[in-house]
Design goal:
elongated; four-stranded mixed β-sheet; nine-stranded mixed β-sheet; single chain
Length: about 180
């Protein structure tokens, strides 16, 4: 049984198929690249995978510990980081603004904390929001919707749009501020 073919008319390499679908390399089944792989358009690298599992998409090929790094001049940068034995709170996912500057706009850290608009780790905070032009908007709902929450957690906070007041659950009852 034929397992590999090089098309005499196109030079395309066919593995585990005999139908030339027009691809330079057409693999029907599982493929593995043991070292670096570059996928490019017109000679410009648009995706690279590197030995050790690092994948870069866009125009930033520095292997700085991220297992996935996506960069676009117009849309900023995002990455997924893997750091065995890293310091608690080290970023595992991040994205930056369109300028790709250090003003990271969203971070998920390995200790489970989330930072929006902040770059510094705040060890005692699970959710850190940083802004000098915007505030925090809790979930808004009517008094009826608030009272319909099944088993509200102690400390749960909402904005009651019927009362036009913030409310929190103290473990027994809803407290209106």
């Amino acid at each position: 049984t034929e397992k590999m073919r090089i098309s005499s008319s196109t030079g395309n390499v066919l593995i585990n198929t005999t139908t030339d679908a027009g691809y330079k390399l057409d693999v029907n089944g599982t493929a593995r690249v043991a070292t670096n792989l570059t996928v490019s358009t017109a000679g410009n690298g648009s995706m690279n995978t590197f030995l050790g599992g690092f994948v870069a998409i866009g125009n930033d090929w520095v292997n700085d510990g991220y297992i996935l790094k996506i960069k676009s001049i117009n849309t900023g940068t995002a990455g997924i980081y893997s750091r065995a034995g890293g310091a608690s709170g080290y970023p595992i996912f991040w994205c930056q603004d369109a300028n790709g500057t250090a003003s990271t706009t969203f971070i998920v850290r390995e200790n489970g904390s989330v930072h929006v608009g902040a770059t510094a780790n705040v060890p005692s905070s699970k959710l850190t929001l940083t802004s000098t032009t915007q505030g925090f908007l809790p979930p808004r709902m009517t008094t009826t919707e608030k009272n319909a929450i099944a088993t509200p957690a102690t400390g749960l906070q909402i904005y009651d749009s019927t009362l036009n007041r913030p409310c929190f659950y103290d473990g027994t009852t809803w407290i209106t501020l």
